[in-house]
């Protein structure tokens, strides 16, 4: 069963956490990405996420498989939302259980970083002033420039 | 001519004015097809900033296309 989930409705986070409990795990680390109320100084009313679902699922699962191979962890699960989310909603959830805390922390960080780099999901921000923009598109359209993770503004990072 | 099933995501869908189409094309590779679409729709992003998926698997730009293939050009992702 795939451990990378794409969900189009409000998800039950407690069931995700519950599904990762193992007697051999001594540490659990989770990460939640939330919809923030501002981006680049502009007030955000919500974010719409769109996924190319078959590839997003296989690429997400590949990330979790790599994570299992690279870190000394017991198990992991990740969920990404699609559809329209309001400020405060959970857009992404990652949970990692491991024998010890260090691998749990590092693996959790690895999963979110790789999701942001590789999984074909796009967000369109809805601003309070009525504008709607694909994130990063406004720069693409003007200069062909795509921000990498280092020159992304802090506000757009999860 | 081969028929290719195309799906457009994010800004590509906005610029093309559609989410999907079936296209007859002589383009033999993913790269040639993207060049054709850039001419037709004026996509701003060069292929160097994109990836391409054929039948829902990431493939190289020189991937040969065949009748009935499903092709998605992947603009920079912004999930998370």
TrEMBL record, chain A:
The keyword tRNA processing belongs to this UniProt entry's keyword annotation: no
Top-level EC class as recorded in UniProt? transferase
User: Which parts form a coiled-coil structure per UniProt?
Assistant: none
Reactions that this protein is recorded to catalyse: 2 [molybdopterin-synthase sulfur-carrier protein]-C-terminal-Gly-aminoethanethioate + cyclic pyranopterin phosphate + H2O = molybdopterin + 2 [molybdopterin-synthase sulfur-carrier protein]-C-terminal Gly-Gly + 2 H(+)
Catalytic activity, EC: 2.8.1.12
Task: Name the family.
Answer: Belongs to the MoaE family.
This chain belongs to the protein called Molybdopterin synthase catalytic subunit
What organism is the protein native to?
Answer: Acetobacter oeni
From TrEMBL, chain B:
Pfam families according to UniProt: ThiS
Entry-linked Gene3D superfamilies: 3.10.20.30
List the signal peptide residues.
Answer: none
Top-rank lineage group of the source organism: Bacteria
Q: What is this protein called?
A: Molybdopterin synthase sulfur carrier subunit
Origin species: Acetobacter oeni
